[in-house]
Amino acid sequence: MSISMIGIDHNMAPVDIRAKFAFTKKNAGEAMEKIKNQNGIYGCVILSTCNRLEVWASVDDEVDVCLYDCLCRIKGITEDSYRQYFVERKDQEAVEHLFYLTSGLKSQIIGEDQILTQVKDALNLARENFAADGVLEVLFRMAATAGKRIKTEVPFSHGNPSVIHQAIGFLAEKGYSLRDKTCMVIGNGEMGKVAAQALQEAGADVTVTIRQYRSGVVNIPLGCKRINYGDRMEYMPKCDLVVSATASPNFTLKEELFQGIRTKDDLILIDLAVPRDIEPAVGKIQGITLYDMDSFRIEEVPAELQENLEAAGAIVREQMDEFFQWLDGRDLIPRIQDIKDEAVNDLNLRIAKILKKTPMEEDDRQNLVHAVDTAAGKVVNKLIFGLRDSLNQEIFLECVAGLEKIYEE
């Protein structure tokens, strides 16, 4: 069995290409079930975020499985030209990628912790759809453990980074202050709430759109105002900055909606959605500046983060070693069980004559044999796993191979 993945992210493809392969939560669940049901695939997890799409699978080494083809069939894509945007990783390379990713060390914004939640949510969704097998379950769980350790043990200097925080910093570098600015956030999901909170903390007057049928039951960040989603264009002329961050498959802001509306001369629109929330043509309207997810990428790691990155990397490597020890041990369990069975059988043959000559009832003799078998099995386990804990992996594997040879016919 192998661990395999394919992925597309903000480093390899622009937002419009990533959008073709993005999944909603519902669609991701259905896709995982379809992929797992294919021959040669034991388990599947799909990680779909604004910045990336990854398909993970545990696969049978004897079966030729192409995850890219599986994904394209589900998406109804027949063009092979998109293959250039994907990267494929297997086994150790794949495991290393997931650990570094979950720790925020491969994100568009180094050290951001939203990816940790997204990885855990991907595993939970796979569980709900009975798609994750034991190997992917442990892999994703241990990767999340590494991410949580880094979050608590490594003090990344820029606090709680996210794309909206990066956007605010980007604007600040251009001399744009949000203090007393009128801002609207379209969308009240996880990213929308983070955006509203960040804008408010920067000193803005923030209003959040709420779908009318949900307006009585949803919460918005403390201190923010609310309007119905249908009233967003009426509120637009008052805005200095608008953020759209929904999971809608359709545009929340189209070029045609701006006809007959006079906006401020320097209106800033920030699209944090994949697929896009804001029609690109809107950015060509006079007086409007449009930014998308790819506008705020970091080209190089700031020098002050290097020490924290090294500390985070040490935690990642430690947790990865623990996973590979588990994985190697999992593969060895059947071999160790065979050695134990052979040793117990050997003991039974050696004491059979003694027990037969021992005066006792047959039931008592059978109970004694069972007790001896149990005790012998525990002793063998203790010896073998004791060797595992005291020797390095290579020498331990040689010991296991040597024990197997003892009972070869």
From TrEMBL:
During catalysis, the active site Cys acts as a nucleophile attacking the alpha-carbonyl group of tRNA-bound glutamate with the formation of a thioester intermediate between enzyme and glutamate, and the concomitant release of tRNA(Glu). The thioester intermediate is finally reduced by direct hydride transfer from NADPH, to form the product GSA. CDD domains: NAD_bind_Glutamyl_tRNA_reduct. Catalyzes the NADPH-dependent reduction of glutamyl-tRNA(Glu) to glutamate 1-semialdehyde (GSA). It catalyses: (S)-4-amino-5-oxopentanoate + tRNA(Glu) + NADP(+) = L-glutamyl-tRNA(Glu) + NADPH + H(+). Belongs to the glutamyl-tRNA reductase family. Homodimer. NADP(+) binds at residues 187-192. Substrate binds at residues 49-52, 107, 112-114, 118. Pathway: Porphyrin-containing compound metabolism; protoporphyrin-IX biosynthesis; 5-aminolevulinate from L-glutamyl-tRNA(Glu): step 1/2. Residues 173-295 form the Quinate/shikimate 5-dehydrogenase/glutamyl-tRNA reductase domain. SUPFAM superfamilies: Glutamyl tRNA-reductase catalytic, N-terminal domain, Glutamyl tRNA-reductase dimerization domain, NAD(P)-binding Rossmann-fold domains. PANTHER family: GLUTAMYL-TRNA REDUCTASE. Its EC number is 1.2.1.70. InterPro entries: 4pyrrol_synth_GluRdtase, 4pyrrol_synth_GluRdtase_dimer, 4pyrrol_synth_GluRdtase_N, GluRdtase_dimer_dom_sf, GluRdtase_N_sf, NAD(P)-bd_dom_sf, Shikm_DH/Glu-tRNA_Rdtase. Keywords: NADP, Oxidoreductase, Porphyrin biosynthesis. The active site is at residue 50. This is Glutamyl-tRNA reductase. Residues 6-153 form the Glutamyl-tRNA reductase N-terminal domain. It comes from Blautia difficilis. It is an enzyme of class 1 (oxidoreductase). Residues 312-406 form the Tetrapyrrole biosynthesis glutamyl-tRNA reductase dimerisation domain. The record marks 97 as: Important for activity. GO terms for molecular function: glutamyl-tRNA reductase activity. Possesses an unusual extended V-shaped dimeric structure with each monomer consisting of three distinct domains arranged along a curved 'spinal' alpha-helix. The N-terminal catalytic domain specifically recognizes the glutamate moiety of the substrate. The second domain is the NADPH-binding domain, and the third C-terminal domain is responsible for dimerization.
